[in-house]
Design brief:
82% of the residues lie in helices and 0% in strands. It has one helix spanning 2-37.
Length: 44
């Protein structure tokens, strides 16, 4: 069935997108936490 193969490829693409999004969200959260803990240190 072609539908299964197509769904598998779409699932792989979505998994990669979700992984990159999770990494980006974790980086942003870490950045915000570091700014909150050491505010004066990270002032622009």
């Amino acid at each position: 069935m072609i539908q299964i193969r197509y769904n598998k490829r779409m699932y792989y693409k979505h998994a990669v997108l979700d992984l990159s999004f999770l990494l980006l969200a974790a980086y942003v959260l870490l950045y915000v936490a570091m700014r909150g803990l050491a505010g004066p240190l990270f002032k622009d």
